[in-house]
Amino acid sequence: MTETPTSPPTAATWDVLSPEQGLSLRTAAANLREQFDGVFGQETIERFLFSSFDQFATTATVNRFLPLMAERFARQRLQALAKVEGLHDDGKPTVLFLCVHNAGRSQMAMGFFTDLAGDAAVAWSGGSEPGIQVNPAAVAAMAERGIDISSEFPKPWTDETVRAADVVITMGCGDACPIFPGKRYEEWVLDDPAGEDLTAVRPIRDEIERRVRALLAELAVPVAH
Prior knowledge:
Blueprint: H1 11-15, H2 19-35, H3 42-57, H4 66-84, E1 94-99, H5 105-117, E2 122-127, H6 136-144, H7 159-164, E3 167-171, E4 184-187, H8 198-218
Parallel strand pairs: 1-2, 1-3, 3-4
Helix pairs in contact: 2-3, 2-4, 3-4, 5-8, 6-8
């Protein structure tokens, strides 16, 4: 889990970055300030951006992608916080898919949900123990269905994303999955695709699609195709 950050970054925080990372993060901060103008101030945005950057810095194998990952993760968290605090809510149903490593089942579920719902609903995903990369067999299986999840990356669940979700779908994370009173939860019992080849992942993928379509029907979200 990632807690909501409380301490703002200081000038020294920028100094520990490489020049390339510093430039990229400043660009990311500018992008987020533009998107959340009138919702959050610069201090809050930079606090979330840096805590997101720190989250991936300890495990990333390719550092040049760190600022982009941090920006995307910070954006998701800020969107969730805005909804939780009543600062912005577009009324779209929001679903959070959780598994252990956020590398297979939850990524495929988010991929199907986003593809089928389009702009009519929002999907996030996370893991109790995020892995290093999305399972290549899951990426290949989704590509067969015309859905590209190759640019996704494992990330933790956070307090604000759980609190902002209308439905939380858990897949095998057991007691490590967050429980908030009054929240709608569903446990999807699915085989874990970790370490499996494409042939073994296909039926898992197909079952996930079936469940996602049923969930969208329950939420009265029209599917794109």
